[in-house]
Write a structure and sequence with these properties.
By secondary structure, the chain is mainly α. 73% of the residues lie in helices and 0% in strands. Helix 6 (89-105) runs antiparallel to helix 10. The chain is globular and about 60 Å long.
Length: 363
């Protein structure tokens, strides 16, 4: 998914978001339908890692966030928060439904049903609910007419923040934000995958341990709504560093093997922090690079973070196998998060600037 994001991000910026999302829905639905007929395990792996991953990249948070960046400027954080609150509902709603359906009808029928639902739900929402950018209907970001408008392009304000790929890669700010956010994204991935095993490691039954997914999801739904709104009023860089401090404290407490109720609360805090990543990340990207380059920068950032997302879960698993404890892995995550916060601290408070010295003055 991350490997495909730079190209998809460029398409989102320079083409039709509605078309990209529609193709993504078809790719995802087709992949799920073909998986339901798979006869070998490798076929499932290829289809999940290929078709499903690319389909979700085209249909998921990057596409919806790019649309929100086009439509909102002053209220961008709030819009990104609302748009990204839907994703965390998946573990809370879809996973239990899928589990019940697999138990009742089998995994093949369940995959076929989800393929159909992808088309029945996603395509009408895209067709009737998605307009790529306000200029297409003679409107303006935030509904506010700018002082200066490009002649012949109603509804589009003059913007000097169109960055091409070489400029983005030469920007110091891009590397600071991409590498600073990557450990945060990796922590969310690792803790999501290990939440139930961690609770069972504390002695919880399988059924009791599964409650942690719901708790994390509740936190992840409320986080974007809260911190997305705050990002319109407070420097998102500072909010991001605050989230890193919050999740680091929660991880430190989890490393002490707390009792079950306290562990649930801590995972709720982790979910709230992890779910808030995308609106704050989007607010940072919008402030540093502008809405015209939003998708491209998000996509390139995903590619930069790919090694961390690949190595992090493996290192976490090896640490547990070697010590039979989650403490070492959790402490390693804290160190990585603190290093990421250090990089984010070097970002400017205002917009990024181009320079002939490849970002030596902050972009």
């Amino acid at each position: 998914m991350n490997a495909s994001m730079p190209l998809i991000g460029r398409l989102l910026d320079r083409g039709s978001i509605r078309r990209v999302m529609s193709i993504g829905a078809f790719v995802l639905a087709t992949s799920l339908a073909v998986i339901s007929r798979a006869t070998e395990l490798w076929q499932v792996g290829v289809l999940f890692g290929g078709g499903c991953a690319v389909g979700m990249a085209m249909l998921g948070p990057m596409a919806s966030s790019t649309a929100m960046a086009n439509w909102f400027d002053r209220l961008r954080g709030r819009a990104l928060g609302i748009a990204n609150a839907g994703g965390p509902l998946g573990p809370a709603l879809i996973v239990p439904i899928a589990a019940l359906a697999i138990g009742e009808f089998g995994w093949r029928s369940t995959m076929s049903a989800f393929a159909g639902l992808t088309l029945l739900v996603a395509l009408p929402a895209i067709r009737f609910g998605m307009i790529d950018r306000p200029s297409l209907v003679g409107q303006y970001p935030d509904g506010e007419k700018p002082a200066q408008v490009v002649e012949g392009a109603p509804g589009e304000a003059v913007e000097s923040s169109v960055w091409d790929t070489p400029e983005v890669l030469r920007s110091r700010d891009f590397w600071f934000v991409a590498l600073g956010v990557a450990p945060f994204a990796g922590a969310g991935l690792i803790l999501g995958a290990n939440a139930i095993p961690f609770m069972m490691h504390l002695g919880a039954s399988t059924e009791s341990a599964a409650v942690v997914v719901f708790v994390q999801s509740c936190g992840a739904v409320s986080g974007p709504l809260l911190f997305g709104t705050l990002a319109d009023r407070i420097d998102p860089r500072g909010l991001f560093i605050g989230l890193i401090a919050t999740i680091s404290l929660a991880l430190g407490a989890l490393a002490l093997d707390p009792i079950y109720p306290i562990a649930l609360v801590l995972f709720g805090v982790v979910g709230l922090a992890a779910g808030s990543m995308m609106p704050l990340y989007g607010a940072l990207i919008g402030r540093l690079f502008g809405r015209e380059s939003f998708g491209q920068v998000i996509g390139l950032g995903a590619l930069v973070g790919l090694p961390i997302l690949f190595v992090g879960p493996l290192g976490f698993g090896f640490a547990f196998d070697a010590t039979e404890s989650y403490s070492v892995g959790l402490l390693g995550l804290i160190v990585a998060l603190v290093l990421g916060a250090g990089l984010l601290a070097f970002l400017p408070q205002g917009s990024a600037r181009r320079s002939s010295t490849a970002g030596a003055t902050g972009g």
